[in-house]
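lol ok so funny story. i was supposed to be doing the assay writeup but got distracted and ended up predicting the structure for this chain instead. priorities right. anyway since i did it might as well share w the group, maybe its usefull for someone
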Amino acid sequence: MSVNKETVLKNAFSAAVAVADPQVIVPQYLAKIFPKGQEPTGRCLVVGAGKASASMASALEVYAKVYWPQVKIEGVVLTRYGHNSPTSHIKIVEAGHPVPDQAGMDGAKEVLALTKQLKQGDVLIALVSGGGSSLLTLPQEGISIDDMRKTTEALLRSGAPIEEMNVVRKHLSAILGGNLARVAIARGARVEALLISDVTGDSPADIASGPCAADYSTYLDALNILEKYDLDGSSIPASVLSHLKQGLSGEKPETLKDADLVDAQVANHVIATAYKSLEASADYIRTQGYEPIILGDTITGEAREVGIEQAALVRDYVKKGIGKPLALISGGECTVTIPAGIQGRGGRCSEYLLSLFVASSDLPNIAALAADTDGIDGSEKNAGAWFDGGVREASQSNDLSPEPFLLAHDCYGFFAELRALVETGPTLTNVNDFRIILLEK
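and the output, tada:
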């Protein structure tokens, strides 16, 4: 079968994104959580945050109009700028991500204020997806939004993985780390959280820093993370350090723990995951004559190192001999550490791909794509990038050497020159990064 590799790569990515579409999966799960005859009673408050949350809210409203016509739906959901979706009853607030801004803080205040109005028998439906951690950055008393912004920026620059960043943010937030559920529990309300996972392991405590989930981390963990990356008073505001130290000494309450959920009506439902998306991509790839090999959805580390490692893996397969064409598919979230004085353009997916491009110069026939399933990879407006033998030939004929671009962390600039960017715009979902490498005989 003769196939266009660019088309195969892009369709494989599209298949991964489509299976996590809130318009499809939210109605399916609402029907399971609230079977016929067990629709919400009392007040039904919908809150949430994340890159997919506005689309989730839109899907919920469409479902409720048909199946819960007597239920009054109200609420507020935060999403990243440009990720809006039409709603009639649920207010959508667009705010800053990954660095929080005033719009996000004001929206988060509204989420908390509404939750505090719940009463016995009411239902809180939380719509949560990746990106919610920064969008729900409502600081604890004594910490300003500017202090939270500076802390987030310092963590981003340090190269700390998102899991560690979120441990710190949970312990500074009035909503994250289960604090939203804590407010609802205290008022006798039922909590049903629908989660689209963009984290390795798919733990509800990690997805958007778990606003409705018991948290396994502590104030000590948060302080240890700052120490690990040499983040001290020169980069972290005094109010943040003071709060964490007060928490360590027991002067501030810990995040929500399992013991707090005894006898509470709280459920977290993970409705979309990276692995389900990798499987959907694998199903498509089989129709194109490739044998898919899923390397896993938990691949992390420095993006350029992962690119080198996967180039070595491809080389191993080639040495063994390839009978049927193969597709190596993987997910997870890499990091990019930007040295001081370098601006950089692009994101972790494009940087991984440029590293793979350089490390596989002896493998001219491979093709690959890497893109963020939310449609935005880092600092620019592309989802990621791709290459095949033709793109490699174009770089050579145009005398475009990839190494200087990699050194400058300008992966966007390199692939833009070759017209090899993947541009989808916001997909209104988010199940982490997607990578695929095609190998021929």
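The chain has two domains: 5-273, 275-439. The longest strand covers residues 73-80.
back to the writeup now i swear
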